[in-house]
Amino acid sequence: MLQFAPVADGEFLLKHPTTMLQQEGSLSPVPVMVGVTRDELE
């Protein structure tokens, strides 16, 4: 199983995403659609 951990590189992600979510006004309000497929890695 692959795991994903975001990395704040100072260019694309200025701060860790958890920190950005906790600070008001640091993220733009854009719609997001997230999902998975049952047989994606088979």
From TrEMBL:
Top-level taxon in the UniProt lineage:
Eukaryota
* Entry protein name: Uncharacterized protein
Q: Which organism is it from?
A: Trichonephila inaurata madagascariensis
